[in-house]
């Protein structure tokens, strides 16, 4: 996670030195040639304040998931980035460019909040309570309201996080139940 966070800071330094030359990596809605940018836009931020606001939740939430396994981290990251990027690409107003990693942060947050429900694991539910106490307030970001904030990216990421939790944890719960029934 430290390396990924360092990469975000290096990209922002390049962005600042080159005065916005990396904004082409952002998502332009409904431009087919810009569809791959759903995976590059999270690397770019508008300014240092934008990156600073995302850095702590990015590092902490990502680390918590990474500690539960690389596969879970990869699946939750891919699902969150994809759904966040697609929501922005499909639904954002024309002639806009969206950048930033907050869609992934929202995905990781909802993944952590819902995986205990799907797995029926009391330790994961307890962790969800702690995560909600610390970061639950940012969930308001899935609603429209703040100009310049991509609530569509937040909402899309949140949907991806729930989908990843369902995929990773309800299927493993089903497998456990099926194997115990077969004994």
Automatic annotation (TrEMBL):
GO terms for molecular function: serine-type endopeptidase activity. Keywords: Hydrolase, Membrane, Protease, Transmembrane, Transmembrane helix. It is a multi-pass membrane protein. The keyword Protease applies. One of its GO terms (biological process) is proteolysis. InterPro entries: Peptidase_S54_rhomboid_dom, Rhomboid-like_sf. The chain crosses the membrane at residues 48-66, 97-113, 125-143, 149-168. Pfam families: Rhomboid. Residues 37-170 form the Peptidase S54 rhomboid domain. GO terms for cellular component: membrane. It comes from the Bacteria. Its main location: membrane. It is found in: Membrane. This is Rhomboid family intramembrane serine protease. It comes from Propioniciclava tarda. The lineage of its organism: Bacteria, Bacillati, Actinomycetota, Actinomycetes, Propionibacteriales.
């Amino acid at each position: 996670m430290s390396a990924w966070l360092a990469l975000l800071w290096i990209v922002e330094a390049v962005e600042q030195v080159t005065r916005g030359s990396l904004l082409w990596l952002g998502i332009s809605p409904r431009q087919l040639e810009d569809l791959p940018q759903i995976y590059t836009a999270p690397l770019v931020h508008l300014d240092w304040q934008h990156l600073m606001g995302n850095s702590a939740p990015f590092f902490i939430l990502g680390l918590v998931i990474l500690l539960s396994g690389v596969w879970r981290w990869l699946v939750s990251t891919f699902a969150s980035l994809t759904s966040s990027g697609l929501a922005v690409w499909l639904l954002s107003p024309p002639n806009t460019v969206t950048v930033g990693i907050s869609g992934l942060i929202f995905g990781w947050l909802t993944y952590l909040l819902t995986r205990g429900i799907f797995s029926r694991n009391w330790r994961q539910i307890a962790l969800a309570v702690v995560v909600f106490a610390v970061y639950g307030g940012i969930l308001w970001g899935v609603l429209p309201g703040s100009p310049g904030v991509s609530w569509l990216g937040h909402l899309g990421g949140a949907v991806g996080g729930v989908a990843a939790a369902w995929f990773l944890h309800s299927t493993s719960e089903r497998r456990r139940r099926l194997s115990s029934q077969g004994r």
